[in-house]
Amino acid sequence: MKTCNYLDKHRAGVSTNNAFQNVVLGRHENLLRSMVLEKNPGKEDVYPFILMPIIHKGKMFKPLILSPEKTRVYGHNSYLFVFGGFAWIYVVTSHKPPKVVVDASINGTGKISLLPKELKDITCFVDTATQFVKQGKV
User: Fold this and answer.
1) Are strands 49-56 and 59-60 parallel, antiparallel or unpaired?
2) Domain residue ranges in the chain
3) In angstroms, rounded to a whole number, what is the distance separating the alpha carbons of residues 51 and 128?
4) How many CB atoms lie within 10 A of CB 76?
């Protein structure tokens, strides 16, 4: 699963589609491509990702799809993808991420911790929705 997610990151990073314009992998692009081609998931602390089910009114909220956004998680460059009822947070860094990020990501046995979050509590989503309403897009 982790290698498959590398493929998604790499594809977004090399895409010319405007939806992925915020994904700029830089020096990580070649390393991610090599890891995908070699089917090498790397160690648990190499390019971890956090998976958050998005909850609304007690159920997963699947209709939300957003273009990826660059963000920071505990001081590390990260990309937030939203689709399929999940917020996928990919940490893209050359530095060792903190234990809390590694613990929330997929581990060496393939297990992953899901961190459910209420839609109303995800500030960046609320801010984006507010902008859409002001622009008359909703």
Assistant:
1) antiparallel
2) 2-134
3) 20
4) 17
Residue 99: φ, ψ to 5°? -55, -40
DSSP H helical segments within 1-138, as ranges? Answer: 2-14, 28-37, 99-104, 123-134
Burial class (CB in 10 A: 0-12, 13-18, 19+), 1: exposed
Placement of tokens 């909703």 in the chain:
138
Strands 76-83 and 49-56 come out as: unpaired
Round to whole Å and give the CA distance between 19 and 123. Answer: 21
Residue 126 to residue 133: CA distance in whole angstroms:
11
* Tens-digit pLDDT profile for residues 8-53: 555 666 777 777 778 888 899 888 888 888 888 888 899 898 889 9
The letter for the amino acid at 12 is A
Predicted TM-score (pTM) of the model is: 0.78
Structure tokens at 91: 């940490």
Neighbouring C-beta atoms of residue 37, cutoff 10 Å: 12
